[in-house]
Amino acid sequence: MKILIVASGNHEHVAPFVTEQMEALREAGNTVFLYTVHGHGPLGYLNNLWPLKALIRKFSPDVVHAHYGLCGLFCTLQREVPVVVTYHGSDINSRCIRPLSRLAMRRAAYNIFVSESLIRPDFKIQKSKFRILPCGVDLDKFSPIQREESRAQLGLLPQGRYVLFSGAFSNGVKNAPLAQAACDLLPEAALLELHNRSREEVALLMNAADVLLVTSRHEGSPQVVKEALACNLPVVSTNVGDIATMLSTTQGGTIANPTPQDLAAAMEPFLNTPQRTHARERMDIYSITHIASQLCSIYNTIHHE
After folding, report:
1. 245-250 LR contacts (CB < 8 Å, sep 24+)
2. What is the dihedral of CA 245, 246, 252, 255, to 10 degrees?
3. Which residues, 6+ apart, have CB-to-CB distance to 240 below 8 Å?
4. Residue 287: count of CB within 10 angstroms of its CB
5. How many CA atoms lie within 13 A of 24 on its CB side?
6. In what order do the strands lie in the sheet with 235-237?
7. Do the Cβ atoms of 39 and 30 come closer than 8 Å?
8. Is the Cα dihedral 61, 85, 302, 285 positive or negative?
9. 91: part of which helix (H) or strand (E)?
10. Reduced to 3 states, what is the DSSP secondary structure of residue 80?
11. Alpha carbon 215 to chain centroid distance?
12. For residue 299, what pLDDT band results from cuts at 50, 70 and 90?
């Protein structure tokens, strides 16, 4: 099958979960192309319409798969090829973008939500036209490594107490002040920022840290949690997105109330007695190959309708 992936190109790099999903689809035997949308606002997106249509005429894909609601709505402006849209969270949680995402849902052939928490009663989508399907994690790239080896490669102290934050400190949604306030209650705990790192460095950080801390105000189905679980890194998180389901399924961590005291109390055991989970043993349902297989099933269904 020929699949055209459409995603935003307004950042330095296309999101890793998009490129890794593309590679998994290729390994499943599909031909996959990528179109990146450059531009902001309605006019910026519309300026991409003719290049997109030209690529569709040249490539003749069987399906277009757009990531995020705005890209999805943009892709439905062409009607030659059916469109699948994946909604990741910010396109639903934002009051400004949500109406546009809702319009994309009505126009798309199929809709994918990365977590059940993103589905609202007012969406009114036919059950046959949507599915809950998180993005998968590369279990080869994210796998357990000895903590001492990982710390040595990153230049971290062998006996340090390291809390890995779930994103960039500057990202307001991630709520870094709450994370720092919780770490301030734990003696000698260092909060590590997850920002501007290669995928290899991210995997090393997952294995070097004592615990992953998620203090987000809202989430969809965060990849960082799946990656941590694949490395057997314990997770402490506020109750956002589908994290509670992931932790319950894999027994990989703890949900805590969004207060510094409760988050610190939940992290303290992992810092006082460094330990690893056995979450990886239960990660098959989140593997990127499993998710790619589910996507192929969706593509085949809408292609033959």
Report:
1. 245/115, 245/116, 246/221, 246/286, 249/282, 249/285, 250/277, 250/279, 250/282, 250/283
2. -50
3. 117, 214, 216, 217, 218, 219
4. 18
5. 24
6. 189-192, 161-165, 211-214, 235-237, 253-255
7. no
8. positive
9. helix 90-93
10. coil
11. 16
12. very high
DSSP symbols for 108-177: SSEEEESSGGG--GGG---GGGEEE-PPPB-TTTS----HHHHHHHHT--TT-EEEEESS-TT-GGG-HH
Q: Is 127 exposed, middle or buried (0-12, 13-18, 19+ CB in 10 A)?
A: exposed
Nearest to 8 by CA among 63, 57, 73: 73
Task: Give me the sign of the Cα torsion angle 222, 198, 295, 8.
Answer: positive
Measured between alpha carbons, how far is 99 from 251 in angstroms, rounded to an integer? 36
C-beta neighbour count of 14 within 10 angstroms: 16
Least confident of 47-51, 119-123, 187-191, 259-263: 119-123
Q: Model confidence at 9, in pLDDT bands (50, 70, 90)? A: confident
Instruction: Report d(CA 126, CA 123) in Å as an integer.
Output: 9
Which pLDDT score is estimated for 41? 80
The SS3 call for residue 55 is helix
Q: Which two tokens stand for residue 239?
A: 């109750």
> What residues does 115 pair with on adjacent strands?
none
Q: Which amino acid is at 257?
A: N
Provide the 3-class DSSP secondary structure of residue 265: helix
What is the C-alpha to C-alpha distance for residues 92 and 89, in angstroms, rounded to an integer? Answer: 5
- Rounded to 10 degrees, the C-alpha dihedral 166/11/292/106 comes to 100
Other C-beta atoms closer than 10 Å to the C-beta of 281 total 10
198 CB-side CA count, 13 A: 5
Is residue 215 a contact partner of residue 189, using CB atoms and an 8 Å limit? no
Q: How far is CA 304 from CA 91, 175, 267, in A?
A: 29, 44, 50
pLDDT digits (tens, 9 = 90+) for 192-237: 999 999 999 999 999 999 999 999 999 999 999 999 999 999 999 9
